Each structure stands twice: as structure tokens, then as C-alpha cells.
């Protein structure tokens, strides 16, 4: 495991120490958990931005929209209607496609 040295404002260090005592954990464990949660959140946000950008690009592409509609209709025909949005986006390409 890598060792890391950080500087914290006194107020934040006090709050960290209090939280560690409340949780019955070492401060380093609380810090590790906080960093892990932060990194996961940032990765998730970045991924969702990439998905939104890709969806936006596909929504502007008429052929891709048409193919997406065909896939959605096939899924609906197979009884998976609840997993797809049945409304077409052709009338409003800027409309959000997710529920």
C-alpha cells in the first residue's frame, strides 16, 4: 500500500478526527473510504457525460435514430416493452430519451 502525506486545515482535521472516532475507525481508513467514494462518483459522472454525448450524437443522425427505433420495436415485440421508450424522437430530437 502506498503512503501519502496531505495537509488539512485545522477545522477539517478536527471534523475528520471526530468522524473517525464516531465510526470507530482510524482516520486513514475514513480518508481511504472518502477518496474511493469520490473517485467512483467522478468516474460515474464522466461516464454519464460520455453516454449523454454519444446519445446526443446518435439522436442527430437520422440513420442511427432509425436503427434505434427498429431495435426498440424488436424488443417491444419480444415482450420487453418496459425496457424501451416506445415514443419516437423524430418529432423532437432534443427530447430526453431516458425515463
Describe the structure.
The chain has two domains: 11-60; 62-99, no CATH class. The chain is built from three helices and no strands. The two termini are 42 Å apart. Helices cover 65% and strands 0% of the residues. The protein is an all-alpha fold and 99 residues long. Residues 3-42 form the Ribbon-helix-helix protein CopG domain. This is Putative transcriptional regulator, CopG family. It comes from Leptospirillum ferrodiazotrophum. InterPro entries: Arc_rbn_hlx_hlx (IPR013321), CopG (IPR002145), Ribbon_hlx_hlx (IPR010985).
Topology, please?
Elements: H1 10-23, H2 27-60, H3 62-77
In a few lines, what is going on in this structure?
This protein has 99 residues and is mostly helical. It contains 3 helices and no strands. The longest helix is centred in the middle third of the chain and has 34 residues, at 27-60.
Features:
single chain; 99 residues; mainly alpha; 0% strand; Arc_rbn_hlx_hlx; Ribbon_hlx_hlx
Order of helices and strands: HHH
First CA to last CA: what distance? 42 Å
- Total number of helical segments? 3
Q: Work out the helicity level.
A: 55-70%
Structural class: mainly alpha
The description of the largest β-sheet is: none
Summarize model confidence as the mean pLDDT.
83
Shape: elongated
Provide the domain count: 2
As a percent range, the share of strand residues is under 5%
Overall strand count: 0
Rounded to an integer in angstroms, the radius of gyration calculated over CA atoms is 23 Å
Low-pLDDT ranges: none
